[in-house]
Amino acid sequence: MFDPKNQEKSGFSDVQRAARLSVAPMMDWTDRNCRYFHRLMSRHALLYTEMVTAPAVIHGDRAKLLDFSAAEQPLALQLGGSHPDQLAQAAKIAQDWGYAEVNLNCGCPSDRVQSGSFGAVLMENAPLVAECVAAMRAKVNVPVTVKCRIGVDDQTPADILPDFLARVSAAGCDRFTIHARKAWLQGLSPKENRDVPPLDYMLVHEMKALFPHLHLSVNGGVTTLDDTLRFLEAGLDGVMIGRAAYHSPANILLDADRLVFGDGETRSAHEIVHLMLPYIADHIAAGGRLQQITRHMLGLFQGRAGARMWRRHLSENAHRDDSNERTVLEALAYVTEMVA
């Protein structure tokens, strides 16, 4: 049985310990409102921003792109790019902004990412990824990590993935999150690339055996904490969960601290709603809209009696000009609180 206390002996840093369980970077989803909400459910899991391109960090509105609440830590910024100098400059900015980690995206298969010659297409150019990592490592002290696929298109994962890990780790990256699917850059949409290519978890386990000194997390198709614990017990260092953590956050995150990190305190979903109320009030007072927060909360009671009415009330009312924290309490009234 996995013993969270044993991770103390591993020598991994605090942010690596947090990577025992992480919530994947997801475009249009894991913004700062979502991350604050998720952090209330797990004090220890590693959270990621949406992907931000290196040129945007360098030349764009940094406050809009990079600002976060200290309560979101441990927090990693995911960068997109393929120019070593740009990535190094963006990584330094991220470190100065207070991020605990900088992650390089080598897994996104979207057309926009491909046209910019970064994301999953970088699986075809391990030497360039190594150069990018080395440039970032030369500029920052925080961990530089990589999220990748097992391969793309006609590549043979068992051949290319070991070479990719060897080259990039030699450049200074000791932590990888491996999405255990190929990405098909031609013929599949980004949505299809999340589901259609078959999962190859065994290959990820083989990489851990081949590179025992690396911290390897698995991503793709993981939907429960039970799955997470099985991967950890089998020897992997971490698990990254995406859509399941977003659509059913309580089912993934409320028990994560107790089961994954050995912290016995667990909050209820009702408690999480009440803890969100001051944050919601501050957001609205600053000119924000309720819907910007509650869109991330719709799945909180997934599988519970009253969940449909919770979602419906928020969906129908959170966009109103007069909506506020009282709107959330009205929706909560539809959900019966579970008694331990």
Description:
This protein is 44% helix and 14% strand. Helix 5 crosses helix 7 and helix 15 (269-285) packs antiparallel against helix 18. With 340 residues, it is an alpha/beta fold. The chain has 2 domains: 10-260, Aldolase class I (TIM Barrel, Alpha-Beta Barrel); 269-332, Four Helix Bundle (Hemerythrin (Met), subunit A), CATH 1.20.120. Strands 1-2-4-5-6-7-8-9 form an 8-stranded parallel beta barrel, surrounded by 6 helices.
Features:
14% strand; disordered N terminus; Four Helix Bundle (Hemerythrin (Met), subunit A); alpha/beta; 340 residues; 2 domains; TIM Barrel
Quick gist of this model?
The chain has 340 residues and is an alpha/beta fold.
Q: What order do the helices and strands come in, and which of them pair?
A:
Blueprint: H1 14-18, E1 21-23, H2 32-41, E2 46-48, E3 52-53, H3 54-59, H4 62-66, E4 75-80, H5 84-97, E5 101-106, H6 111-115, H7 126-137, E6 144-152, H8 157-170, E7 175-183, H9 190-193, H10 201-210, E8 215-219, H11 225-233, E9 238-241, H12 243-247, H13 249-253, H14 256-260, H15 269-285, H16 291-294, H17 307-317, H18 325-332
Parallel strand pairs: 1-2, 1-9, 2-4, 3-4, 4-5, 5-6, 6-7, 7-8, 8-9
